[in-house]
Structure to design on (484 residues):
């Protein structure tokens, strides 16, 4: 371990963090670090139990005089994202992370540092062994595999944890307090179709929609960016209706959590209408570029001559697909009532493919209000029914609806203001956090999330600000003392 870490404040936290760096803990391979946690608990005479999923729960009684306070759970995840620079030989399964102190920050040697969320775990364990930390009954919940599936949070069972207030230590900007997140659900549309021989006298084209920004389907959904699938469908529908086009295949978008940046299709148009069609394509491009002039300056829609395909999608099925994709709601559906500026419910029409007799479309719906997400799912089912299409709603996980009356949030606000003189920012995100999943088994938990300042998590330039770690820790200790 890098002994220099022990010169940093607070020493107890950095000592634990140094040991965490020594024990490999990439997502799904946390055995070594969990072994170290158990040894640490034994050395410090702290009870620790492991659930069937692999989550650890440390329990510590109240300090004298604090026995009647509401029991608190400090929570952090024990895995890290393994990323190394291409010129760095590093085996995340066996090699220790090498923390380096660099001008007010701690980073690693050409790898991710795992401050996300090693600092969170270290802060929790440091607090429960800190003789200057006064607190009520306290548990530390260390979840596994947050980064590649939130396996630990999904696997948490009712009754395992006794606390009533949960403080999540996995936020990445000191001075921000998280009080809400979105849940999610997938909608998978699929059906088979038949093809017919391409009518004679047709000219082949390939359609390209490119140059869009894309982005994260939750965090960026409020930016009004264009969806390549929507633009391609709108174009194809006009091509079919106004020019008698036939379509052989369509392929747009990709990952479910990415706003689609590109779409392509192969189509045919009667030779007699080819010139008009080409002119229309140019006008259409100008029109959509105009609509998205301020958000998608790189948008491009082009048609280029291609070999006419031998087979095309049977026209009735094609009409149903295009109508369906056209009708599926996309983007922001509603803004939050409880949290100004937060997206409440959204959908990302991520992916649309019609190839080789199979049509499929994939959506990721998000909402901080579980019933609103379910209602959006029902709308998807209704659209699928109208289009004679199969649909499956899967992968549902709940959100965390912001509660601005949350007692722990109000305690945090008050303590922060008294200690630092300014109010922290109250935030919620339109993406998934472990806190959302905890609501399944522990619907009555009063929750808040905060952390130190971590830059570029999940990348080899990840770094954590040393001053912010001290501030975050002092704040945590003060909050624990002030829990009623
Ligand atoms: Zn994290």
């Amino acid at each position: 371990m890098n002994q220099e870490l022990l010169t940093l404040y607070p020493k107890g936290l950095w000592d634990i963090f140094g040991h965490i760096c020594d024990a490999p803990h990439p997502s799904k391979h946390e055995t070594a670090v969990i072994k170290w946690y158990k040894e640490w608990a034994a050395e410090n005479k702290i009870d620790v139990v492991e659930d069937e999923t692999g989550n650890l729960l440390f329990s510590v009684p109240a300090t004298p005089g604090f026995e009647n306070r509401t029991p608190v759970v400090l929570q952090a995840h024990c895995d890290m994202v393994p990323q190394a620079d291409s010129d760095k030989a590093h085996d995340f399964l066996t090699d220790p992370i090498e923390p380096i102190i660099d001008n007010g920050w701690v980073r690693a040697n050409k790898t991710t540092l795992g401050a996300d969320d090693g600092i969170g775990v270290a802060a929790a364990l440091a607090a429960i062994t800190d003789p200057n930390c006064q607190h009520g009954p306290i548990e530390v919940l260390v979840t596994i595999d947050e980064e590649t599936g939130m396996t630990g949070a999904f696997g948490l069972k009712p009754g395992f944890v006794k606390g009533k207030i949960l403080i999540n230590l996995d936020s990445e900007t000191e001075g921000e307090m998280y009080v809400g997140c979105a849940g999610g659900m997938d909608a998978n549309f699929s059906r088979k179709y038949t093809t017919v021989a391409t009518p004679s006298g047709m000219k082949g084209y390939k359609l390209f929609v490119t140059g869009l920004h894309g982005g994260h389907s939750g965090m960026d959904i409020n930016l009004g960016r264009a969806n390549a699938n929507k633009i391609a469908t709108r174009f194809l529908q006009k091509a079919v209706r106004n020019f008698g086009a036939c379509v052989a295949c369509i392929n747009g978008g990709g990952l479910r959590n990415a706003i689609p940046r590109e779409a392509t299709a192969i189509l045919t148009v009667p030779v007699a209408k080819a010139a008009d069609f080409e002119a229309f394509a140019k006008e259409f491009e100008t029109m959509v570029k105009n609509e998205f002039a301020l958000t998608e300056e790189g948008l491009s829609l082009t048609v280029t001559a291609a070999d006419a395909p031998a087979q095309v999608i049977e026209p009735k099925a094609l009409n149903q697909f295009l109508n369906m994709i056209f009708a599926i709601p996309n983007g922001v559906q509603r803004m939050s009532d409880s949290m100004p500026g937060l997206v409440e419910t959204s959908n990302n029409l991520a992916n649309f493919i019609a190839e080789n007799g199979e049509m499929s479309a994939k959506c990721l719906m998000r909402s901080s209000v579980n019933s609103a997400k379910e209602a959006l799912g029902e709308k998807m089912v209704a659209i699928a029914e109208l289009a004679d299409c199969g649909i499956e709603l899967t992968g549902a996980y709940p959100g965390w609806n912001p509660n601005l009356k949350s007692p722990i949030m109000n305690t945090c606000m008050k303590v922060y203001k008294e200690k630092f003189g300014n109010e922290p920012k109250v935030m919620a995100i339109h993406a998934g956090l472990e806190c959302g999943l905890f609501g399944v088994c522990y619907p009555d938990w009063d929750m808040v999330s905060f952390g130190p300042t971590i830059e570029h998590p999940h990348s080899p330039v990840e770094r954590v600000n040393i001053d912010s770690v001290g501030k975050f820790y002092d704040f945590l200790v003060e909050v624990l003392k002030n829990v009623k």
Notes: The first strand starts at residue 47 and ends at 50. Residues 274-291 form the longest helix (18 residues). The mean pLDDT is 96.
